[in-house]
Amino acid sequence: MAKAELTGIRACVFDAYGTLFDFNNAAARCKDDLDGKWERFSALWRTKQMEYTWLRSLMGDYHVDFWEVTGAGLDFALGSFGFDDPALRERLMNLYLELETFPEVKAMLMRLKDAGMKTAILSNGSPRMLEAAARNAGIDHLLDALLSVEQVGVYKPHPSVYQLTVDWLGSPAATICYQSSNAWDAYCSAAFGYQVVWINRYRQRPEGLPGAIRKEIFTLADLPALVGA
Fold first, then answer.
1. Residue 206: Cβ within 10 Å count
2. Which of 130, 186, 204, 227 could join 125 in a cystine, given CB atoms 3.0 to 4.6 angstroms apart?
3. What CATH number does the domain located at 11-22+101-226 have?
4. Structure confidence by residue, pLDDT tens digits, 116-160
5. What is the model's pTM?
């Protein structure tokens, strides 16, 4: 066992998209159909997907699940780039259920499990989306729980979403090590009370938000040593 830098941790909980699963993978696998514009296309799709979660949460009684939000973001991106192809839309949506994990994810989860650490996903994704993604990536057996915002009907960063992990674990927020590659999610979850490791894959600047992040790393391969696994 390595000497832990973060102490008192009972579970490692992960954001899904961008943290464990590469959301760019769907567009990358359709790059020929997207006329070589897949990177800009994927960035816009992701931006609208996130914006729609925040806006629907603020609007009140307008919640729909992440599958519908993902489709709405995709429709915006397809229209913005001038693509009118129902078959392409269907393929992109189906590929979102089969996203690849980042290269280090499986070995990292195996190391945590071998050390006796509880593991879970906490995501905006619907249960169906998370179950399919984890199963297709071959990591479902390495996760103790798939926690979806659908249990509370509002998206991150609402505190009721972060409370889901506390209720699942039956332990205070400070005993949870939470990992996200989304800077806004990292800061907001730190403000909730988690011990947060920001997986800054995309070399983003720190956000001007409340919340004290405990560690910043660039790959999840560095996580096990931080929690003593």
1. 12
2. 130
3. 3.40.50.1000
4. 999 999 999 999 999 999 999 999 999 999 999 999 999 999 999
5. 0.96
